[in-house]
Amino acid sequence: MILFLIKSGICLAALLLFYHLVLRKENMFSFNRYFLLGSMVFSLLVPVLTFPSFFPSIDGSGQKVLVEFQKVFLENDIQYPNEESRVLDPKVVKPMEKSSSVDWYWILGLVYMLGVLFFLMRFIFQIMGLAKLIRNGSVVDKEKYKLVQVSQETLPFTFLNYLFVNEITYLRSGIEPAILKHELTHIREKHSLDILFVEVLKIIFWFNPLFLLYKKAIQLNHEFLADRAVIAGSLEVFQYQKLLISKVLGEEFVYNLSSPINYSVTKNRLIMMRKHTSKRKSLFLKVGLIPVLTLLLGAFSQSAANQEKTFSLTHFFVKDFETYISEALSEKSDFVLELEKLDILGAKAVYLMLTEEEKSRYTEFPILEDEALSELLKLQKAKDSIKVRINFSSPPEKMSISEEVWDNWLKSKNLEVILDEKEEDASILLNYSPEDFALFEVRGVEKKKFLKPEKFRLTLTTHDHFQDKFITSRKKINTISAAYPNGDIAEIPYYMRYVLMNSNGELEEYYPENYLQRALEAILTHEFENSPSTKVIYDVRKSFLIHVTRNGQKEMVAISYN
């Protein structure tokens, strides 16, 4: 919705700017009337229309992305700390606290509805005010309009087919023929309908000041149209200008929904009365509008390219990157992202605008390469048959230390201590209690020898360090998994790496070409459904492995490159 508002807002601003710079100063009033009305309709329709691509899409493939290589094992997830090295009572799992967040979308929705209600009520009061004038005034049916004589001091003004005049002034001197013709032009050409149309849009889009500018431009153009009708009736321009000036010098009541003759920019009306635009120039300006509309259509319609490549600037103003991620997280875990909830293109657009330093702090973005991203989008569209999850490396479960074990550590003479990843003297334990730590690990570092006891290394992690390292730190993607209706589950490591020996006998890292694209493609097509599990040596340069769970059994299936 916000993207729609941004696109339509840009179109509204561009067309209004074109009107003020090019069309407003020309004697093309009838065309300008429909241009202004059409501009609003055009701007609201363009973001939802679908056309073939007019322009190349914005491509992020040229962006250089800093990728952190990390080792991924094909076995089950690495456990931390090592099960065999624990010297403690059974662990006590402490549930992770979910961070609460304010529902800003609900708040914005409430503010929007309050704004709509306020402006709707104001509009209703204005209509009721006109109805009251008609009810309390003296209404005289004329041939093509209804004359309403009111007690208020006011210059003549119109609304729909009603012409409002001051009763005393009308009975004393009537209405000058030029003024009457001016007002009847408003009635005949139904200018009030234009104003009502803009008022409705102002209620719906009350937060957008552009509609107020459109209303002012339309009202002024109405005056140009009515002035032209008066002058076309053979009245001398100078005489009409004198009459108009004499009327606007007063400070009478002006009604918001009418087109009053004392409009604040009367100077422009006086100038435009003598303005002449040739047919050739008029045609040239109308033709010049075509490339402007074509440009806006190509840039902001839902063309094929725009569906695949979203305009990054608009997404930048929608929300920040972490908001995209948090909105897609599973309700069961802050370390599992549900693909069907993720605005992939919006998140990518914002991510590419981050600095390298920001990227190193923010959640890792799943897949930037265009080919792989295309497969991810296809998987998202297939959400009814494939449930895809992006799994971040989750924190280890917190543990507890028994008093007995703690006392043994305090008494030990052969203990090295690593506290929050820093080497410390064992005496530092006297400053702590067992409840101060979230994790621990004990490893033997020196075997027992003659007259020399075995030496151990104790690694401890405080709750604060645990929070910084595992909870508030940057989330890194571990695997991408997919679940199918038949119960199959497929899981691929996000990064795939092998260590191979080259022709010189040296070991080097090898990353399978287009690995993510090919792996996601296999997940999309359920390619491994009937494939046998891997039990033989395979060529890592021509295939790779996917974890597959079938009938409750975990297997490894080789996927070959085409």
Outline of the structure:
The chain is α+β, with helices and mostly antiparallel strands.
* C-alpha end-to-end distance: 41 Å
Radius of gyration, in angstroms, nearest whole number: 37 Å
| Beta-strand residue percentage | 15-25%
Assign a percent range to the helix content: 40-55%
Gross morphology is: elongated
The number of strands is: 16
* Helical/strand content category: alpha+beta
What is the count of helical runs? 19
- The biggest beta sheet, please? 6 strands, antiparallel
Strand order within the widest sheet? 5-6-11-12-15-16
List unreliable stretches of 5+ residues: 53-101, 307-318
Mean pLDDT: 80
Q: What report would you give on this structure?
A:
The structure is a single chain. With 562 residues, this protein is an alpha+beta fold. The chain contains 19 helices and 16 strands. The protein has helices spanning 2-23, 29-45, 104-136, 167-173, 177-188, 191-204, 210-232, 237-248, 266-272, 279-300, 304-308, 312-318, 321-328, 344-352, 356-359, 370-381, 403-411, 463-471, 515-525, and strands spanning 138-141, 146-150, 157-159, 162-166, 336-338, 387-392, 415-419, 422-424, 437-446, 455-462, 477-483, 489-493, 498-501, 507-510, 543-550, 553-560. Strand 7 and strand 8 form a beta hairpin. The longest helix has 33 residues, at 104-136. The protein starts with a helix and ends with a strand.
